[in-house]
Amino acid sequence: MAGQDPETTALAAELAGMAEADHAAAAGANSDDPAAQLAWRRLTARHGDRLNEIMDRVGWPTADLVGAEAARAAWLIAQHADRQLDVQRRALALLEQAVSEGRAEARDLAFLRDRTLVNEGRPQIYGTQIAGVRDGAPVPWPCEDPDGVDARRAEVGIEPFEEYVGKFRVG
């Protein structure tokens, strides 16, 4: 658990700090301001590079290693490494192993799997990725077997699709 040794404590704090910086800069991802978009891209690239180094050292940073907050931060960093498919694919494989060992959440794996699939130009499985909002309605990326999406979502602890996309409605 986090706090057992100074190196693990420092790693947990670093991951949490990266997530805070991510949240603070996230509005820039879809900003009309090119400087804000560029700042977002640079931040997520730095974070992706650092996550790759962390994965070299410890594998997937699970909650039992770094604590729940830092493990969630690692997942967020992987989610946002959209321009670093190698990092996303590696994180996906390590997270999949951690889930199979009962050391990480299947819900997080589902979101990262969908994000990676979308970034590869393939249909998502769980319907977690939204391409944007058109006329106030969310537009999800294409999904494999849309009729079975709610059953797959339920298996990993994600709310039904309509409830989820309702969070993205505008107006």
UniProtKB/TrEMBL annotation:
InterPro entries found in the cross-reference section: DUF6624
Protein name per its UniProtKB record: DUF6624 domain-containing protein
Superkingdom: Bacteria
Pfam families on file: DUF6624
